[in-house]
């Protein structure tokens, strides 16, 4: 039986938001990637919208880049594995704000 994959679409505005948050935090790309624990190339792919983060990576990005509540909610909604746990996390953030 063939594997059916869900259509992937980049999350609108996620990449630029991550890049702006990184710059606001005063971090260069390589430094931010090192602090997050990912390759610089992966961070570039996230910031250009060619990749979406997992929920676990979204947690690290939110903490390292000190994202505000709205940015965190956007990030968790866009997570590649945005299943109930990620969607619930986004809802928690919005409700707490």
From TrEMBL:
Pfam family, any one: HTH_31
HTH cro/C1-type domain boundaries: 18-72
PROSITE patterns given in the database record: HTH_CROC1
Organism superkingdom: Bacteria
Protein's recorded name: Helix-turn-helix domain-containing protein
UniProt lineage: Bacteria, Bacillati, Actinomycetota, Actinomycetes, Kitasatosporales
